[in-house]
């Protein structure tokens, strides 16, 4: 079940994308590990990838636009999707923050610019080129700048096997 219009209306109208990211970041840092443990009661590749992602979440004061896009997408589609309907102390759902943040820059989650952004999602902390290819959508990106932590890319590679993630000619995972 998706969000209701009332869910989105709870997000303050003056919120920026960074405000939305900050609320997601703070909730996951405070509750994520325990909530995931209680929900799944097991340790598997999904849980490990989420915990790696949680460990490497960029601080809200330093996060790039591309990383915010990636995290908004993770809340809606992937590693953080289990928290979609989880609400913070302001009774606002994680997905409401994610959708609100996306809608401020794009025409919703189906906007091709958003899809491309969450595929490339920044880059790595190393000084190597990384190549990410989505077999299903045909997007390919070669990245160099230091905007995305390496473990965030590892979590992406583990959880999204339809993406080929490689450093030049070697596989990342």
Would you kindly provide a written description of the structure presented here, covering whatever features stand out?
- The chain is an alpha+beta fold and 173 residues long.
- The chain has one domain.
- Helix content is 49%, strand content 9%.
- The chain has 7 helices and 4 strands.
- It has helices spanning 5-9, 17-40, 45-56, 65-77, 94-105, 112-120, 150-159; strands at 130-134, 140-143, 163-167, 170-171.
- β1 (130-134) and β2 form a beta hairpin.
**Biggest sheet statistics:** 4 strands, antiparallel
Domains, number: 1
Radius of gyration: 16 Å
Low-confidence stretches: 121-128, 144-151, 162-173
Shape: globular
Mean pLDDT: 77
Compressed to H and E, one letter per element, the order equals HHHHHHEEHEE
- The CA-CA distance between the termini, in Å, is 33 Å
Structural class: alpha+beta
Proportion of residues in β-strands: 5-15%
Task: Please work out how many helical segments DSSP would assign.
Answer: 7
What percent of residues adopt helix (DSSP H or I)?
40-55%
Count of DSSP strands? 4
Spatial sequence of strands, sheet with the most strands: 2-1-3-4
Question: Can you summarize this structure?
Answer:
The protein is an alpha+beta fold and 173 residues long. The chain is built from seven helices and four strands.
Summary keywords:
49% helix; 173 residues; 9% strand
Annotate the secondary structure layout.
Elements: H1 5-9, H2 17-40, H3 45-56, H4 65-77, H5 94-105, H6 112-120, E1 130-134, E2 140-143, H7 150-159, E3 163-167, E4 170-171
Antiparallel strand pairs: 1-2, 1-3, 3-4
Helix pairs in contact: 2-3, 2-5, 3-7, 4-5, 4-6
